[in-house]
């Protein structure tokens, strides 16, 4: 049976795969698991019930899923603070700021509206490790906590949730944004209220698109996965910069004044150099995944910034940041984590810090982005591959080695198995697009050939 929890909580088609019954059960199981241990002993000694923050993005299914989660928690003796529609990083912040004992966010991030998800945060607003998620999953079939009378939890509105988060964000700014025209694309998502309010309070002249959520239009043609409208608006209005969030606002991508996309790697490069100059880049280290562009690695090496690589997924970046006590990391997709201010990727925080660097230096975003050269990156998916069987294939290893020799320091090869389906991703970076395409296709052909031989030998 496949694991219920994926790389970012439990996700699925709402009311089919992710049902109210499952949401109720997960909440009850989480209540049992997350109220164990030393912190739970402290709560009981204080003579109070545990407290959980509950939040969601604006997709319509979040209403009934949120009600189910609240019921599951309260019926397990947990007091629920319902923060309503706020970004995922806002929920994580509020858990630590209140402080609550744990929290639940209902969102499917950048997925379309019919999908939804449930993710849990522990005390301090940090993501749960795999083993704790596994314990919650195993508890689904066990007897639930069932207090009565005064032991039953209460459900209350977290009235000042958004205000607390906005004040926190404004307190992180190294420089106000006065005089800069910013176009915000909120993906009709959870940042539709918070992000415009915060950028305006920071002094920016703000134009907003994609900020009219109706429960069904989240991520639909707007946001960090659909940048065309933002690019058009920035150029048409003569704005200085565009900032795009995804549905739950844990990502940020940007657009410069000419409409060019500035991705997560470029944003991290800009922030890393700024933080190094200001003496706040811990150990002069940046944490990224194996998918980050070679140009980022080369740019950081030129400035004496060490780059540590992790597997793909912001949770692995978070683990490495925590293990080393580092201050900055993230993904090419725009998940950027600044540990001084957040326990998870925060798209509003990232956008604020990026625009603040423009204000601090007096440079345009295009000028700041010159800190790194983006190398052409070609990705070919080879489906139907049992990557375990091919892992020690000498022919593939020789083909990779040959390409790496030809590319030298001006390119890179990465074979990465998909975590969700039988597929190998062949990625090649090179100084020229045509060279990257040629090598990616030739290596993919070798992988397909080996796959055919494996199939013939097994017939």
UniProtKB/TrEMBL annotation:
Cofactor: Mg(2+)
Alphabetical keyword list: Isomerase, Magnesium, Metal-binding, Phosphoprotein
Pfam families for this protein: PGM_PMM_I, PGM_PMM_II, PGM_PMM_III, PGM_PMM_IV
Gene symbol of the encoding locus: glmM
Residue stretches making up the Alpha-D-phosphohexomutase C-terminal domain: 379-445
E.C. no: 5.4.2.10
InterPro entries, alphabetized: A-D-PHexomutase_a/b/a-I (IPR005844), A-D-PHexomutase_a/b/a-I/II/III (IPR016055), A-D-PHexomutase_a/b/a-II (IPR005845), A-D-PHexomutase_a/b/a-III (IPR005846), A-D-PHexomutase_C (IPR005843), A-D-PHexomutase_C_sf (IPR036900), A-D-PHexomutase_CS (IPR016066), Alpha-D-phosphohexomutase_SF (IPR005841)
Catalyzed chemical reaction(s): alpha-D-glucosamine 1-phosphate = D-glucosamine 6-phosphate
Any GO BP: carbohydrate metabolic process
Name of the protein in its database record: Phosphoglucosamine mutase
Positions with a binding annotation for Mg(2+): 109, 246, 248, 250
Note accompanying the cofactor annotation: Binds 1 Mg(2+) ion per subunit.
CDD domains: GlmM (cd05802)
Alpha-D-phosphohexomutase alpha/beta/alpha domain sequence ranges: 3-140, 164-259, 263-374
Single GO cellular component term: cytosol
Catalytic site positions: 109 (phosphoserine intermediate)
Modification after translation (UniProt): Activated by phosphorylation.
The keyword Cytoplasm is annotated on this UniProt entry: no
Assigned protein family: Belongs to the phosphohexose mutase family.
Positions of modified residues (Phosphoserine): 109
GO function terms (MF aspect): magnesium ion binding; phosphoglucosamine mutase activity; phosphomannomutase activity
Native species: Agromyces archimandritae
């Amino acid at each position: 049976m496949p694991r219920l929890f994926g790389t970012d909580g439990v996700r699925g088609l709402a009311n089919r795969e992710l049902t109210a019954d499952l949401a109720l059960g997960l909440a009850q199981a989480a209540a049992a698991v997350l109220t164990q241990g030393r912190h739970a002993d402290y709560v009981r000694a204080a003579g109070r019930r545990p407290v959980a923050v509950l939040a969601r993005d604006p997709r319509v299914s979040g209403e009934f899923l949120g009600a189910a989660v609240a019921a599951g928690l309260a019926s397990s003796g947990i007091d629920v603070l319902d923060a309503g529609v706020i970004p995922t990083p806002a929920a994580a912040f509020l858990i630590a700021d209140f402080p609550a004992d744990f929290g639940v966010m209902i969102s499917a991030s950048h997925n379309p509206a019919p999908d939804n998800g449930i993710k849990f945060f522990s005390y301090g607003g940090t993501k749960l490790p795999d083993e704790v998620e596994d314990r919650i999953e195993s508890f689904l079939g066990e007897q639930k906590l069932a207090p009565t009378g005064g032991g039953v939890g209460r459900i209350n509105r977290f009235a000042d949730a958004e205000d607390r988060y906005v004040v926190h964000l404004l307190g992180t700014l190294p420089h106000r944004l006065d005089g800069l025209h910013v176009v915000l694309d909120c993906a009709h998502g959870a940042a539709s209220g918070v992000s415009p309010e915060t950028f305006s309070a920071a002094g920016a002249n703000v134009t907003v698109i994609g900020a009219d959520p109706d429960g069904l239009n989240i991520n639909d043609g707007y946001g960090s996965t659909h940048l065309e409208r933002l690019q058009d608006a920035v150029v048409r209005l003569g704005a200085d910069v565009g900032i795009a969030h995804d549905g739950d606002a844990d990502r940020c991508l940007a657009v410069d004044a000419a409409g060019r996309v500035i991705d997560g790697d470029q944003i991290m490069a800009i922030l890393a150099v700024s933080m190094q100059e200001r003496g706040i880049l811990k150990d002069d280290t940046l944490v990224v995944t194996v998918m980050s562009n070679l140009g980022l690695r080369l740019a950081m090496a030129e400035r004496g910034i060490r780059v540590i690589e992790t597997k793909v997924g912001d949770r692995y970046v978070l683990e490495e940041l925590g293990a080393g006590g580092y201050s900055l990391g993230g993904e090419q997709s725009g998940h950027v984590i600044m540990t001084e201010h957040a326990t998870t990727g925060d798209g509003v925080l990232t956008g604020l810090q990026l625009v603040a660097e423009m204000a601090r230096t007096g440079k345009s975003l295009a000028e700041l982005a010159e800190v790194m050269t983006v190398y052409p990156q070609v990705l070919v998916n080879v489906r139907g591959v049992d990557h375990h069987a091919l892992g020690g294939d000498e022919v593939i290893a020789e083909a990779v080695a040959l390409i790496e020799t030809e590319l030298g320091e001006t390119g890179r090869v990465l074979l990465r198995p998909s975590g969700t389906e039988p597929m190998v991703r062949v990625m090649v970076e090179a100084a020229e697009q045509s060279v990257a395409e040629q090598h990616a296709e030739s290596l993919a052909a070798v992988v397909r050939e080996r796959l055919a031989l494996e199939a013939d030998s097994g017939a």
